[in-house]
Automatic annotation (TrEMBL):
Keywords: Lipid metabolism, Membrane, NADP, Oxidoreductase, Sensory transduction. GO terms for biological process: estrogen biosynthetic process. Substrate binds at S177. Residues 1-27 are annotated as: Disordered. It comes from Paramormyrops kingsleyae. The lineage of its organism: Eukaryota, Metazoa, Chordata, Craniata, Vertebrata. Its EC number is 1.1.1.300. InterPro entries: 17beta_DH (IPR011348), KR_dom (IPR057326), NAD(P)-bd_dom_sf (IPR036291), Sc_DH/Rdtase_CS (IPR020904), SDR_fam (IPR002347). Residues 40-226 form the Ketoreductase domain. This is Retinol dehydrogenase. One of its GO terms (molecular function) is estradiol 17-beta-dehydrogenase [NAD(P)+] activity. Retinol dehydrogenase with a clear preference for NADP. Converts all-trans-retinal to all-trans-retinol. May play a role in the regeneration of visual pigment at high light intensity.
Length: 350
């Protein structure tokens, strides 16, 4: 059937290239994506859960069947939730592939296995978090975050971009964060990895424009996914070696409760972010920056209102340490402030 993807289970490969399933197949045939049928080939990283899963399912279930989704994950044993969300679209508009963004070999194998290596839209979604006082985090742990959130994206772009440039078409999407634009206390390393990504892409976007290749950042605030759960599990296990008692107290008794409150009050769903991402893909002139949550527009605006950085740093300091009890009121005020003019500056899911 034209435009139909092969059953991905037939030729899935682990990151090391060994067969995932049928031992009789020795070579993975190129994934037939039939780009010539007018459908866009969309490769997404990190589809085993959360935002990546919801984007993959939403695009695969597109009513007009405009997309061939290559949903990737580093371990195909985690595919069940995605397959459940995709339903009967699996095998028609969606194929599964193994891809670990931390392995060059895995990236090369995955992209090399696509027909003509064609990727029309690359969605760099895979990412990990890290929270806590800097003193208690090892350099190795920090490198792991950069290896995934920064070099993982760079690896993907390096593999896909030359073909897009040659074809003079393509769209690269990066799942950044509000924390790629505004630093947040005790999120120092995660924030740094997203800032690095923003700087990298802001530079690259200018060159890519010359080749008619688009680059867009999606910048969500808090989103209810496994991300939040994994971070809280890590925090529960933390022993904070090297951090003084005051810092640990500020982290556990001041930062964590206010962070949980922010998630509850301002959190979006993974579906909200998938809707925003779909809008960016389908826009005739997609924006470079795309905040998904109107509640964060004033926070980011504050940063640009005072280029010395003083306004943001002192506002966050006061909110956290001096007016902790006013935090709830502040969130309510922010909700009121999300008027039309802020909406225009966002890519709202609605
Ligand atoms: N949740 C939020 O509050 C929030 C806010 C702003 C931005 N973001 C960003 O949104 C993106 C998706 O996060 P999420 O909230 O959907 O979290 P999630 O549910 O934890 O999903 C993260 C995905 O990334 C995958 N991944 C991690 N390391 C990988 C690697 N080396 N290679 C390939 N895949 C890898 C995970 O796969 P495994 O199952 O194998 O671990 C998982 O599928 C991240 O880039 C995150 O920084 C999240």
């Amino acid at each position: 059937m034209a435009g139909r993807l092969h059953d991905p289970l037939d030729f899935s490969r682990r990151a090391d290239g060994s067969p995932e399933r049928r031992a009789t197949r020795t070579r993975a045939p190129a994934l037939r994506t039939m780009a010539s049928d007018g459908r866009k080939v969309v490769l997404i990283t990190g589809c085993s859960s959360g935002i990546g899963l919801r984007i993959a399912a939403m695009l695969a279930r597109d009513e007009k069947k405009r997309y061939h989704v290559v949903a990737t994950m580093r371990d195909l044993k985690r595919k069940e939730k995605l397959l459940e969300a995709v339903g009967d679209a699996h095998g028609d508009t969606l194929a599964l592939r193994v891809l670990d963004v931390c392995s060059e070999e895995s990236v090369r194998q995955c992209v090399g296995g696509l027909e003509d290596r064609r990727v029309d839209v690359l969605i760099n979604n895979a990412g990990i978090g890290l929270l806590g006082p800097v003193e208690s985090i090892s350099i190795e742990e920090m490198k792991k975050v950069f290896e995934t959130n920064f070099f993982g994206v760079v690896r993907m772009i390096k593999e896909v971009m030359p073909d897009m440039k040659r074809r003079r078409s393509g769209h690269i999407i990066v799942m950044s964060s509000v924390m790629g634009l505004q630093g947040v206390v005790f999120n120092d390393v995660y924030t740094a990895s997203k800032f690095a990504m923003e700087g990298f892409c802001e530079s690259l976007a200018v060159q890519l424009l010359k080749f008619n290749v688009k680059l867009s950042m999606i910048e969500p605030g808090p989103v209810h996914t496994e991300f939040e759960v994994k971070i809280m599990q890590d925090v529960a296990k933390m022993e904070f070696p090297g951090a003084d008692a005051d810092t640990v107290r500020y982290f556990k008794d001041v930062y964590l409760p206010s962070s949980i409150h922010m998630f509850e009050a301002m959190g979006q769903s993974a579906d909200d972010i998938a809707k925003c991402t779909k809008k960016v893909i389908e826009a005739s002139r997609p924006r470079f920056r795309n905040l998904t949550n109107t509640l964060y527009t004033p926070i980011v605006a504050m940063k640009y209102a005072d280029e010395t950085g003083g306004l943001s740093i002192h506002t966050f300091y006061n909110l956290l340490f001096n007016f902790g009890t006013l935090m709830h009121i502040t969130v309510s005020i922010l909700k009121c402030l999300t008027c039309r003019c802020f909406r225009r500056r966002n890519i709202s899911p609605d």
